[in-house]
Specification:
By secondary structure, the chain is of the alpha+beta class. Among the domains are: 4-79, no CATH class; 84-137, no CATH class; 329-408, no CATH class; 418-480, Winged helix-like DNA-binding domain superfamily/Winged helix DNA-binding domain (Arc Repressor Mutant, subunit A), CATH 1.10.10.10. Helix content is 33%, strand content 21%. The protein has 16 helices and 19 strands. The strands form six sheets. It has a six-stranded mixed beta sheet, with helices on one face. A four-stranded antiparallel beta sheet has the order 11-10-16-17. It has a three-stranded antiparallel beta sheet with strand order 3-4-5, with no helix packed on it. The longest helix has 15 residues, at 4-18. It is globular. The termini are far apart.
């Protein structure tokens, strides 16, 4: 620059002239390759918002944009160091009830809530008024325009199917945050499928979506949504292959989650009182582990692959989570072969009673046999292997017609031979010779098996009077049962 000093003075003057408040900045002149360069650093201010020529702006990625009305409200709250749920709702504590909150709080904490707790939890302020958090947990909830949840089951893979029927179900819920949580999860369960197969150790269940993931996503959407926005709502959209939950408001830090390390996101709570109470009731963790739990719940599934990894996306206006249907390929295969009624006719009301390959698991050919009978009778009696069956229970069909269909060999799943069970029982018995008492966790390490598999084996050994359980839950131990003389 020809006159860096003069230019820097001009810039400094304009900063003071054009901004509504003092801007903490550092302006310096540096030499680089015998040239003078002006370096300007603007530090984040504590008194948001800052107006430039009577307009407020925010950064959106690499660009600067005008703030919307709700964004301006949030900037003002940040400047005052106040969260939305801490603000006075203008409603008296006696104007509403808390029956659902009191009931669930007792169930979750085993403690009865007292009037003094409403003050310590910041649900009621010193002016005897409900805070916005208090209104959120009240039976009335926030005004409808701030607390709606739109739930839709779409017909196909998008919102524009190839037929006239766009939605199979459409419900709008409004009310307290706990009511919305309950109804949102119910809607997803109603339109999800439970598939199962039976093997040597019992029944293995396969949900379309991991239960933990559903709970975490809905809780996060309700707790972290931007309640200053009255032009939007939480949307739950279920398609054939996925579930999408969209919540008003991006990340509290204004960052984009897709630009961050998804497994290492710092905890920033837009609604601190609400988050604290949901933590007390064991609906969520304070340590920002919700996203990690969603991903891990998928990774724990036998059907998981990288193609099923949940997707997180945010802008300055919304936060979206996309969960993939783990059973979609099976559903698609079933749908391509036949309609539900045709499948029901084929598999439940078989025209050939002698066809043992289509015998449903629910109609065992030998009800009196308490041993581990194969789920499907093999056409080859000499075949000692067990061919699994998969039961698909469609909640929507259950509600409409209360019918259950059993599908055979849908996914070509195979289970191990009965010798596998015998070998592991022998290993446990051998382990017990040097360990009079042992826990299931020790067997997991010893046999290098999953927790669910070990529990099934131990349960079988208890039924066969080989071992005896002692204690409950995490403290439970087992010991070899001595034969009676």
């Amino acid at each position: 620059m020809k006159n860096a000093k003069k230019d820097s003075e001009f810039i400094s003057s304009k900063i003071n002239e054009c901004f509504s408040k003092f801007i903490n900045h550092d302006l310096s002149i540096k030499n680089k390759e015998n040239k003078e360069i002006i370096e300007l650093i603007i530090f984040e201010g504590e008194e948001k918002p800052y107006y430039f020529s009577n307009k407020a702006y925010i950064r959106n990625g690499n660009t600067t944009i005008n703030v919307t009305g709700s964004q301006l409200d949030n900037l003002i709250l940040q400047g005052k160091k106040v969260r939305f749920d801490e603000m006075d709702s203008g409603k008296n504590k006696n104007d509403t009830t808390f029956k659902k909150f009191e009931k669930i709080y007792l169930e979750k904490t085993n403690k009865r809530i007292d009037i003094k707790d409403f003050y310590s939890f910041n649900l009621i302020n010193k002016n005897e008024q409900l805070t916005n958090a208090g209104l959120l947990f009240s039976d009335d909830g926030l005004p409808e325009k701030y607390s709606r949840v739109y739930c839709r089951r779409w017909n196909g893979l998008d919102k524009a199917p190839n037929n006239d029927i766009k939605t199979l179900d459409y419900v709008i819920y409004k009310g307290s945050i706990l009511y919305l949580l309950e109804k949102s999860i119910e809607f997803i369960k109603k339109h999800s499928n439970l598939m199962w197969k039976k093997d040597l150790y019992g029944r293995n269940e396969y949900y379309d979506y991991p239960k933990e993931a559903i709970r975490e996503v809905i809780v996060n959407a309700l707790v972290h949504r931007d309640y200053t926005r009255d032009d939007s709502e939480i949307s739950i959209d279920i398609y054939d292959d996925r579930l999408e939950i969209t919540s008003p408001g991006g990340m509290y830090s204004n960052e984009k989650i897709q630009d961050l390390n998804i497994m290492n996101i710092p905890s920033e709570r837009r609604n601190r009182i609400t988050a604290d109470l949901m933590f007390r009731m064991k609906f969520m963790e304070i340590s920002a582990s919700g996203i990690q739990e969603i991903i891990k719940s998928y990774e724990r599934s036998e059907k998981y692959s990288k193609n099923y990894k949940p997707i997180f996306e945010s802008t300055d206006r919304y936060f979206k989570v996309k969960l993939w249907n783990l059973n979609y390929e099976i559903h698609k295969d079933i749908k391509s072969k036949n309609s539900f009624n045709e499948i029901e006719k084929t598999f439940i009301n078989s025209s050939n009673p002698g066809d043992k390959s289509l015998t449903p698991a629910i109609n065992s050919s030998n009800p009196g046999d308490k041993s581990l009978t194969p789920v499907i009778n093999s056409s080859n009696p000499g075949d000692k292997s067990l061919t699994p069956a998969i039961n698909s229970l469609n909640y929507q069909q259950k509600l409409e017609s209360n019918k259950l269909a059993t599908f055979n060999n849908i996914d070509n799943l195979k289970v191990k031979k009965i010798t596998y069970l015998k070998e592991n029982i022998e290993k446990i018995l051998s382990f017990s010779k040097n360990n009079e008492y042992f826990k299931s966790s020790e067997i997991e390490k010893e046999l290098n098996l999953k927790r669910s598999r070990v529990r099934e084996i131990l349960s079988k050994m208890v039924k066969e009077n080989l071992i005896e359980p002692m204690g409950k839950n995490k403290s439970r131990k087992y010991k070899i049962k001595k034969p009676q003389k």
